[in-house]
Amino acid sequence: MVQRKGSLKERQRQEREQYILQAAEEIMLEKGYHHTSMDEIADRVGIAKGTLYLHFTRKEELAYALVEPKLNMFLESVQQARAYNGTAQEKLIYLLEKEMSGAFFQFMLRSDPDLASVFKAQQQRIDGLIAEIFGGIGKILDEGKEAGLFDRELPNEMMAFQFINMFDPHLYLKMVEQQQMSKETFIRHVAKVYLRGIER
């Protein structure tokens, strides 16, 4: 098979970009978003700063490139939860268990809170993903309402928002890491609190 001209160069470029993202994630988790410099990322990868800017023109763009695939993985988990063979409650618990160990939650758990500024800078790009995630959770909630399991008077938007709030890292850090509650026990408790609030 004849290799297309430039394919090796493109593969090398993609590999270098993955090294950049890996180094950026390591440094941001170590030092926080605002204390991470493009110079430091370039040094860790072993490339010139100018080469780094060929891949990412700004630090915000680089940080978003770390977050976006993790959000896509969250969306994929929502889709898997919808297809899960169980009741609406079991689907929500499945999603909760899966994403508490998922890349997005674990990244946000270890990230400096100032990384939230990246979401504001990329709001238009991220809104579509967030809408799909909420929409998928809404479909599960609709299923639960139709089965007579969930309170029909509660708006789906409110129920979905409260579900997403269970992924707030602060409570997890306090209960699991500071008070040494097992992750399984934590998930069981937050699921019980949530489901009791939306069930009929």
TrEMBL record:
Keywords: DNA-binding, Repressor, Transcription, Transcription regulation. Residues 14-74 form the HTH tetR-type domain. InterPro entries: Homeodomain-like_sf (IPR009057), HTH-type_TetR-like_transc_reg (IPR050109), HTH_TetR (IPR001647), Tet_transcr_reg_TetR-rel_C_sf (IPR036271). Gene3D superfamilies: Homeodomain-like, Tetracycline Repressor, domain 2. The keyword Transcription applies. Residues 37-56 bind DNA. It comes from the Bacteria. Coiled coil: none annotated. Pfam families: TetR_N. PROSITE patterns: HTH_TETR_2. PANTHER family: HTH-TYPE TRANSCRIPTIONAL REGULATOR RUTR, HTH-TYPE TRANSCRIPTIONAL REPRESSOR KSTR2. This is TetR/AcrR family transcriptional regulator.
